Amino acid sequence: MAVENKVTRVENHENPERDSNMGENRNEFSSDEPSPRGVLEVPVLGGDSDNSSSSSSSGSSSPGKQASNRIGIKENTGLQWKNMIDTIKKKSVRRFSVIPLLTSYEISRKNLRRKLARFQGSEEETDSDGIPVPKPSWKNFSYSELATATDNFSSENLLGKGGHAEVYKGCLSDGKVVAVKKLMKNEVGEETRNSNFLSELGIIAHINHRNAARLIGFSIDGGLHLVLQFSPHGSLSSLLFGSEHCLDWKTRFKVAVGVADGLQYLHHECHRRIIHRDIKASNILLTEDYEAQISDFGLAKWLPENWTNHVVHPIEGTFGYLAPEYFMHGIVNEKTDVFAFGVLLLELITGRRAVDSYRQSLVIWAKPLLESNNVKELVDPRLGDEYDPTELKRAMLTALMCINHLASKRPNMQQVVQLLKGEDGPLELQQKSCTGRAVILDGLDMQDYTCSSSYLKDLNRHMQLVME
Ligand SMILES: Nc1ncnc2c1ncn2[C@@H]1O[C@H](COP(=O)(O)OP(=O)(O)OP(=O)(O)O)[C@@H](O)[C@H]1O
């Protein structure tokens, strides 16, 4: 299918000042070069029987009911969150978007303020089994608290800037160092901005895993803010691409396993399935001891339990990481993240960006090298021989499986974790079965070939469009 129409570029810059503070020089793949982030508007293909509200933009009869029926929150903070969202939904439904979630409701500032305030002030509630649920631990900050913490959002405290937000380092009155994410007023209207904010807040508030960003609080005073745990080493992107210092293999592999663990949690262990939709090096932050933290849940979505595939519109994400079925047809599920994770693995292995300064796709460059097991060409030359060959082979095999152009052939994140950690049998066996399958597919399935080559053609076309 030809994808056409509007392409919007949104840039993502990390703070160059901080990069230079870290003694980092730009290398070939400069860290201040933005990953192009595209929003393609494509015609929606067909319906999805699982979701009658698919791609509808009208407030249909009972979207709120549908959505709330799907919410099966069991965790402590869940009940209160659900109550708040239910109340917001009842009063604020104006538009029902492609995914029946709390994201889908446009919310006026007045409404947002009232609901969040009421939520914060609510008494302890009980869940459906009558068990008392403690109040959530995250805090509703005032603007002045955040302004004081960040020295009036001074440029010295600017940690990074994405397409939607500026992130500042801050120090709270109790001495805790935090990151304050200030949502920017861009081209989207206030109500959309509010619902995006609630979406990100709602998702991040429910996440509890060492490999995912942790919410400390929020503020809707003088703009929309999220207060998050501070990651002292910044993003993987700045460490991998923006530093003279070569990130050692041990840390790279630790990051790979950490991100895989985090995604496994989001996809399989969270009370509701979550897809992130924007897994990329600049959205992976590093803690003090280089533990990976998946951040930026601005595009993340909850998935209904029985949802296999869905068509979304518009398509959002970052070029170079987009799975073919997603950017060509808008089909989204967990395998969208699996593909992006494969690209991230390739970045860790090769030290190359998903899309380099010559507009070359890493996937297109690396795939033949992975298939021919060409370690020498593939591995980041800066590593020399300083890597664990077994870990590297596992990472290569996993990457190859994750970037399969057929979503159904990609492993799920549980399998990815097993592959990376070597819990899935000897590597040789895995390698054999992977190569065997590739041969069968390549030999028999002409449609695959067509699909693959048109994928590459479309990918190049989209990249040209977005980078012009
Ligand atoms: N908790 C944190 N600790 C340290 N730095 C952070 C933190 N959160 C974000 N940053 C920095 O700020 C940058 C932008 O943050 P983020 O990706 O959340 O913004 P965004 O506008 O949502 O981005 P995008 O354009 O990808 O949607 C990150 O790449 C990172 O460098």
From TrEMBL:
Name of this chain's protein: non-specific serine/threonine protein kinase
A Pfam family of this chain: PK_Tyr_Ser-Thr
Catalytic activity line of the entry: L-seryl-[protein] + ATP = O-phospho-L-seryl-[protein] + ADP + H(+); L-threonyl-[protein] + ATP = O-phospho-L-threonyl-[protein] + ADP + H(+)
Region (Disordered), start-end ranges: 1-75
Domain of life, source organism: Eukaryota
Native species: Rubroshorea leprosula
InterPro entries on file: Kinase-like_dom_sf, Prot_kinase_dom, Protein_kinase_ATP_BS, RBK1/2/STUNTED, Ser-Thr/Tyr_kinase_cat_dom, Ser/Thr_kinase_AS
Compositionally skewed regions (Basic and acidic residues) per UniProt: 1-29
Family designation: Belongs to the protein kinase superfamily.
Low complexity composition-biased segments: 46-62
